[in-house]
Structures are given as structure tokens and as C-alpha cells.
Structures
1.
Amino acid sequence: MGEFMRYKNKVAVITGGNSGIGLETAKKLSTEGAKVAICGRDLKTLNQVADQYGFLAIKVDVSNLLDIDNFYREVASSLGKIDLLFANAGIYKSIPLLETTEALYDEIVDTNIKGLFFTVQKSIPHMNSDAAIVLTSSVLNHKAWAGNSIYSATKAAVRSLARSFAADLLDKKIRVNAVSPGPTFTPIFGRLGLPDDELKNVADHIMSGIPLKRFGTTEDIANAVLFLGCSDSAFMTGAEIVVDGGLGQI
Ligand code: NAD
């Protein structure tokens, strides 16, 4: 039983809910009473999470519109109308400007912008009124890191979409806000394919630049999502909460 039950009898949908920030958020939502549906790319972890926590878990590539349609059909038939959509699925690749190929460009943009755009658009017929949508942007929509141009541009687009979607959905009484994590310990860094010692050097270098001198935890980010996803944040729409240890601010 959660300390709070802000999500009792609510339906929460999380893209990228089988790993990292999405999984932590799914667990916290469930603890606060939500019925949870997640999607992601990896069938093995989806099945593990479904077995362990009882979530509805569907394999989806968010850049494939038919997959998104199928996901919402399954959510509607199993759980009903949606109260919170956390559009969180995303990929991170650090690529020097001169090494950015068209294929890498397409992969990052298709996942982080196109995937998120249609995840939100196609959710709308399935949303309750007074529902909330939270989008995962990044502190990199505020500042530049060399070798991150495309990723940062996609996350700036997500920040912008939070404003535009919020305007588009006012009449439906659906609020839309963004959460912008700073560096947060999740499997995303392991996916860069760097050897362990190099990864540690990168992590140490990143940490030295964070004013609060630590990485974020998935819990730090999930706490902000749960706030944005319920009536605690009833007077916020089109806004952003940056959870970054001060990285983008100081
Ligand atoms: P993660 O790799 O642990 O999780 C990413 C999730 O997105 C996984 O569940 C994966 O299956 C899903 N996903 C990726 N591509 C997908 C696709 N095409 N279709 C469906 N699902 C897909 O990483 P994370 O750190 O938890 O990242 C979650 C979000 O937070 C991402 O949008 C990421 O850009 C953002 N973010 C992370 C950090 C960080 O430091 N970890 C910082 C800022 C922003």
C-alpha cells in the first residue's frame, strides 16, 4: 500500500516502461493504486516485468504507427480509458557531428520525435477528460554537450511539443507537461556499447559537472512524473520540470 493513493482506480500508460525511468515510474504508479500498461522494444524484459508486477505489457516500436494502434486497442480492451500517458520511450546516442549518418539521424528522430508525436496523437480518443500527459525531454534541451546535436534537438522538439499539445488539448481538458531529467542512472548508458572503464570515465566526467555532485536516480524523475500526472499539478500545463541536480541551471 502506498503512502499516498493518488492514482487509485486510474489507468496509466507508459512507453518505455520496461526499463529505467519508465519502469520506476510504472512501479510507483502501481504502488499508488494505478492500473498500469507499459510498452517497449524488448520482449524478454516486457515479459519479466509483466510477470513480476502484473502490468499489461506489449511489444511496440513507437516509430511504427501500426504498433501504436495495436497497443491502444489492447489497453482499451483490457483497462479502459486512460488517465495518465507517460510518453517516455527514447534512445540516446552520442555521435560526433561529422560521424552522424543519415541512418543514425533517422533512427533517433523517428524514435524520439515521430514516435512520441504519434504516441500522443493516437492516445487522444482513448483518454478520459481531466487526463494528463507527461513527455520525457532532457536537460539537453537547455544546454549543449558536444557530440549530442541530434539527440538534443529531438529533446528540444519534445519540450516544444509539450507546449503545442497543451494548447491543442485545452478544450479536451487534457494537461500536457514535460519532465527533463539530467544524467540519471539507467540502462541507457550501457546501451552506448562502451567498455566498462571508458563508461566509468565518462560517468565521472559527467558527475564532476553536476552541481549536486551525483547522478539522478530513477526515483528522482518518477517523483516529478507522478506530481505532473495527477491533480497535485492541476494548475500546470505546457510547462516543464527540470530534474537535473542543477546541471542546466547553475
Ligand atoms: P532506458 O534505455 O532504460 O529506457 C528506454 C526505454 O525506451 C526502454 O524501455 C526501451 O524499450 C524504450 N524504447 C526505446 N526505443 C523504443 C521504440 N522505438 N519503441 C518502443 N520503446 C522504445 O533509458 P532511460 O534512461 O530510462 O530513458 C527514458 C527516457 O528518458 C528517454 O526518453 C531518454 O531519452 C530520457 N532521458 C534519460 C536520461 C538519462 O540520463 N537516463 C536523461 C535525460 C533524458
2.
Amino acid sequence: MIKTRFAPSPTGYLHVGGLRTALYNYLYAKKTGGSFVLRIEDTDQSRKVEGAVDNLLSTFNRIGIQFDEGPDQGGENGPYFQSQRLDTYKKYINELIDSGNAYPCFCDTERLKNVRQQRLTDKLNTPYDRHCLSLSRDEAMTRMSTESHIIRLKSPADEDIIFYDIVRDKVSIKSNDLDDQVILKTDGFPTYHLANVVDDHLMGISHVIRGEEWLSSTPKHVLLYRFLGWSPPKFAHLPLLLNPDKSKLSKRQGDVAVEDFLDKGFLAETMLNFVALLGWNPGNDKEIFSLKNLEKEFSIKRIQKSGAVFDQDKLNWMNSLYLKNESLENICKKVESVFTSENFDISDNDKFRSAVDYARKRVNTLNELPDEVRMFYFDLKFNNEDGEILSLKTSFSVCQFWLKELDTQSSWNADDLKSLLKRTIEETGVKGKDLYSPLRLALYGSVHGPDMPTLFNLLDLETIKLRLKTSLEFHTG
Ligand code: GLU
């Protein structure tokens, strides 16, 4: 049975790279009929951020990814928390000490710092000199009950530690290059390596799919599996995410936090689709995938090794496409609060729908929608150049004629508009740019803008008359 997991440390927000890791794990589990779990790796108490887990869960909720299992805490499908599993880790740490694969270390920080410095100068690969490994077992045990200490794993000498990675194939590391890693800290919490391996094993994780930055930790994990007598899961390390200039993707929250993209008006569907293609492709040029499609088409074998460029222009393009194709109902629902927060009166639902439908074809994000239709909701503002156009005699006669014609109307349709335009040309002799520019300016606030039927669709007759009246005030002659 395939089982994958997403195992973030709760250090703040969900990074786009984290979303990609979670998504690939989710997709692989779905594709194979397996399950996907969330495990919060909170054993580093110094890096803990208040509210980070709630924030993570709410971001996954917004994005539409669900986890399959979890213990009682945190709701039905709530996550596992490593900080609640300390006794389990202690048990395996003791086992490692008993089997001679781990040992206590009593060196204080001052000594460790000096040793590290000296070994660096001596060009030695590992920062620790194994000082405490030479203590007799009895001495080590006695001191453990009274002195502050950490526990280290004993790396074997002179061997190649080999494992297979689905993305990178064979990976080999010299054991002499591995430091005797810490597995238990002085605060009684295990380190990432120990807790991660114990949990992956006990939770029956079959595939560990994670970012490339964890590749160097994997030999240490492979050792832990061996010392504990367990067979390791399969590993797949995902390519780095890069800026367009090929540097490592920024860590600044505003540029990479999934919640910020959602807040800026990128759709969850877009984010999933976009992120899915950062390191995977279907083998053809298809680029638009719903989550359901991805569940079918994703293949772990097609994950690339080379870095994946995060292209903001492509994200914008993709979101604009989703905005055009998404159901109008959904877009309206999603964007309602953006409009009301900017004081739009959207009580006329037909008008709101038409406005959103008009604007969504012109923008990249939901948040840009209000600006596209502001002129249908608020009084127009004119600059000097606009004033000059409206003060022209031709402009005046067109607007005046329209006002006179519309005054007697109480309703309006597209045919009426056609015939009004025809009559305007006949009666005033004004046509072409001289006809359309002042009308657009008067009704919409700019000479460039939607066509007349759209304008009439979005503005009620009263507003049209009022705006025509205002435009006449520019004429002084
Ligand atoms: N806790 C690690 C992280 O923050 C998990 C890495 C892994 O998946 O093993 O990403």
C-alpha cells in the first residue's frame, strides 16, 4: 500500500515549494489509491512559531488539498504532532544506545565550537572529534544520569553509503564524510533525523517525496534505518525552485507564501496547476490541468532532476486563463468581499455579474477586477485633456442629442442603441472618432474602453442621463 506524507516544520507559512512537495505526495497517493498524511515536525522548539499550524491548515483548506488520516487531535483528519510523541522516540534512542550505534556526548558548546574551528583549519570533513566515544560504557551511563548531554549516532568508518532515489537514481556518500549526528538534544527533544525516520517507519510511509535540500540528510537516515533493523522507504528528491536568473527562489514571504498568492487574487486552481508543473510535465505540451486531471496524469517517474524556474509571467497568464474559464458564479462569490471592502455597492446582482464578466477577461488576478469596473460604480473623474474633448462643439451636440432622445426612454435595448447611433449621425452630422470619443468619455471616463452595448449593459439609464448632463457642463460656447 502506497502511503506518503507532508512533514513541515511549523515555522510560519506555506512556501510554494512546500505546496509543490505536498501536492506531489498527494498526487502520488491518489494516483495509486494510497493515502497521504500530514505530520507536523515540531521538535525544534526554538523555531516554533505561534499560529503556524492553524495557518498551514487554513492554507491547505483554501487550496483544496485534503489529508487522509490523523489521530484525535486537530480534528478528524488532523495532523500528527511530533512533540506529542517524545516517548516513542526515547524508546528507539535507547535501543540505539544499547546496540552500540549511538552514544552520549557531554561536550559543552564552548568545546564543540573550538573543536569545529580546529578541524576546519585542519581541513577535516567532520566537525566533531568523537571525544565522548572513547568514554567507557559505565562512565557514560553514570554521567548520563547527572550531566547535561546529547546523544549522537555513531557513523561507520570507511564505507560507501548507497541509496536509490527515484529522481536521481543511485546516490553514494562516503561514511567518513558524515559527522556523528545528534539524535537527541539537551532539551530532551529528538532531532529532525531521528524523529523523521522513526515516524516514517511507524506510520508505514512507503515513499518519501521531499525537496532536494534534504538529499544530504538521506544517508544519515539510511544509517538509522539500518541500525534500527528497518527497511527504508523509497526516496524521491524534488528539484530546486529557481528565480528566472537561475538563483535559488527567494525566501521573502511576500514572494513565495501560498496564502499571499491567494490573497493577491490568484485562484487555488491556478496555484495547484502552476505548482504541479514546477518539476513535472506530462510528456506533451498540455499545460492546463485540474486537480482531478493531475490525479490521473501525474507520474513520479516524470519528475525532473534539474531546477525548475518559477516564472511569475506564466503564473499571471495561467490565472487570467482560469479567470476566463471559471464559472461566473464562482468568480462572483470569490470576489464579492474584495468589492465590498472597496465600498462598491453591489446590491444590483445583474449589474455585478455583468461587471465581473466584463472585467475578468481583462485582468490577471481577482484583486484587479474592481479597478476595471470602478467607472460603472463611482462618479467619473476628468483631467484637462478630457475636458478639452468634452468642450468641443461636436461633443456637445452629440451628448445633447443623446440626452434629448434618452429623456423620453424608460427602458433600453441593443436595437434602440443601433438606431440611436444612426439617428445621431443623421441629425448632428458627427461621426467616427468625434462621435464615439466624447460618448465614451462622458459615459465611461475614458476615450478607450468597452463598446457601446457593454456600456449600456453596465450602466442604468438614470446614470447614463446624469453622466450626459455632466458632460454638457464642459461646453462653454
Ligand atoms: N520537517 C522537514 C521540513 O520541514 C521535513 C523534510 C522531509 O520531508 O523529510 O521540510
